[in-house]
Design goal:
Helix content is 59%, strand content 5%. The chain is mostly helical. 42% of the residues are buried. About 1% of the residues have low confidence.
Length: 529
């Protein structure tokens, strides 16, 4: 297509394709021009933004890497690089890109100082981050105020200066503009109040922050894509359906998948495991999501050709008609999906021989079915934590909003989401007969017997205990790639202050306890208030 498109026609063509949702086709055209020495930054920016919004981080990285290769002295190439690394939480590389921008750009605006302060904070360099924000103060840009405050109070929290957070925020919040940064600031205040034992005030601040975010985001859980996928998979995954699947050969290399429910301790486990010299762990990589996107495209094409769905069928029937073709993924399609998986994985880690690859993503729990289609002999480490603490922690955290995290903006939604995710997990375990390939670890047991519980996980993975695991906190700080809200906690020695935290909020948790009864019985958790 590039041969018949001129440079003048490139941008309108890309805009047209992107409007139709074909940003991947548009990206290929943009990269074709880049390889010939012509970089249209507006077109590249559009494609990269849509890739990031679609969680297609590998594509955003590829666009950025090619721009930097072809035009390393243009600051906009490094801006693409920064945005890709920021989306993937590679903070050291993001900071490097920002420093390049500062050298090459004719002017530096407030956004640059905010971005640099965020990267420095994530790299645990708080004094440098605060100095960056001080430079920003001199610009007096009102549009940067709320984000600057969020960074400032996050840094104060990182330094455990909770009294300072509590002192400065309430008067400022009275007149602050209502945006997503302010919604997050309410949660920072709530966590500081929680640390000081002021639970009534903490819950009030949480309610305000989550309420504001709900209004700003326009969240509607009834059309939530993750919940819909759970509902479809619960209907599809039966022994009868699995018996119709085409058999596929095992992969030459199979990762271990670390999953569970969000806020159950997966980040702590991933950091511990990655400290082992024989393990390479990936922290929330877009591996399975990228594979799922590619598989859905193939399955949609098959469903379209078969025309099984009756005219006017509802969303569930339409989705089932598409996912029903998962069993028809043959050796050719599986080989392509595995290639995609490892291509994305290589952007996360530099593969080494004779190591165990660990893929950590809590809500991959929902997609165990597609994982086992690719890797029929896969093993799973499942993180558990008291369901009340999981859901309360989600309610207290600041997330990048997506279809999964949208369920944590109120306690009822979070609790029902927990119930549905866990029921699907148990269904997968039964229909795939995974008892010998699932190792459960309770967060509370890890606190009580760190070495013993970690040794059990390593034995499950075919490895021996290593003293390097006991220094996981130092290892986590050195990695500089923490993406999750747990990034401050897992760079400290293991602590138990968040254990049974939910009991401080028992009167608000009590109405949602019925959602947790089955899990509590299975895993030995006490729900008495």
């Amino acid at each position: 297509m590039n041969q018949s498109v001129s440079a003048k026609q490139l941008r309108p063509l890309v805009q047209g394709l992107c409007k139709k949702g074909k940003y991947q086709d548009a990206s290929r055209i943009v990269m074709g021009f880049m390889e010939k020495g012509y970089v249209d930054y507006d077109a590249a920016d559009l494609c990269a933004r849509l890739a990031r919004e679609g969680n297609n981080i590998p594509l955003a990285k590829t666009l950025a890497e090619l721009a930097v290769k072809m035009a390393p002295k243009n600051w906009r190439s490094w801006q693409l690089s920064y945005q890709a690394h920021h989306a993937d939480a590679h903070w050291a590389q993001a900071l490097k890109s920002l420093n390049k921008i500062a050298k090459l750009s004719p002017s530096i605006n407030a956004e640059h100082y905010l971005a640099k302060a965020e990267a420095l904070e994530r790299l645990f360099r708080p004094d440098e981050a605060l100095a960056c924000l001080a430079e920003l103060d001199a610009l007096a840009e009102k549009s940067a105020e709320t984000r600057m405050w969020l960074l400032k109070v996050n840094i104060l929290s990182q330094q455990k200066r909770y009294e300072n957070v509590i002192a400065v925020l309430p008067p400022w919040l009275e007149t602050a503009s209502q945006d997503r940064y302010v919604a997050s600031i309410w949660k920072v205040l709530a966590r500081a109040l929680d640390k000081k034992g002021r639970y009534e005030e903490a819950f009030s601040a949480l309610t305000k922050g989550n309420g504001l975010q709900t209004r700003l985001e326009g969240i509607e859980t009834s059309t939530n894509a993750v919940r819909r996928r759970i509902e479809v998979f619960k209907s599809l995954f039966t022994p009868g359906w699995l018996s119709t699947w085409q058999p596929v050969a095992p992969a030459s290399r199979t990762p271990v998948f670390l999953l569970g429910f969000p806020r159950s301790g997966t980040t702590l486990l991933e950091q511990m495991l990655d400290a082992h010299e024989s393990i390479q762990a990936m922290e929330e990589p877009p591996t399975v999501s990228t594979v799922m996107r590619q598989a859905i495209t193939w399955m949609q094409a098959k469903a379209s050709m078969s025309s099984q769905a009756p005219r006017g069928a509802g969303w569930k029937q339409q989705w089932m008609d598409v996912f029903n073709f998962m069993g028809e993924l043959g050796d050719e399609q599986i080989a392509m999906l595995r290639e995609t998986y490892f291509r994305v994985a290589r952007q996360e880690v530099n593969f080494q021989e004779n190591t165990v690859l660990v893929d950590k993503m809590p809500l991959n729990t929902v997609d165990i079915g597609i994982i086992l289609r690719l890797f029929p002999d896969a093993k799973f480490v499942v993180a558990l934590r008291h369901p009340c603490d999981c859901v309360l922690s989600g309610f207290m955290q600041t997330f990048e909003m997506n279809e999964g995290m949208a369920n944590f903006l109120d306690l009822e939604s979070g609790a029902s989401f927990y119930k549905h995710v866990m029921k699907l997990l148990w269904q997968y375990q039964e229909v795939f007969q995974l008892d010998d390939r699932m190792h459960y670890v309770r967060y509370e047991d890890l606190l009580d017997d760190f070495e013993g519980e970690t040794s059990k996980i390593l034995h499950f993975m075919g490895l021996e205990w290593s003293e390097s695991i006991s220094r996981y906190d130092e290892h986590a700080k050195a990695r500089g790639t923490l993406a999750t809200p747990s990034y401050q906690g897992v760079t400290q020695k293991i602590y138990s202050t968040s254990r049974e935290r939910w009991r401080h909020y028992g009167k608000w948790m009590e109405p949602v306890l019925p959602h947790f009864r089955e899990a509590a019985e299975r895993y030995g958790y006490d729900l008495s208030v």
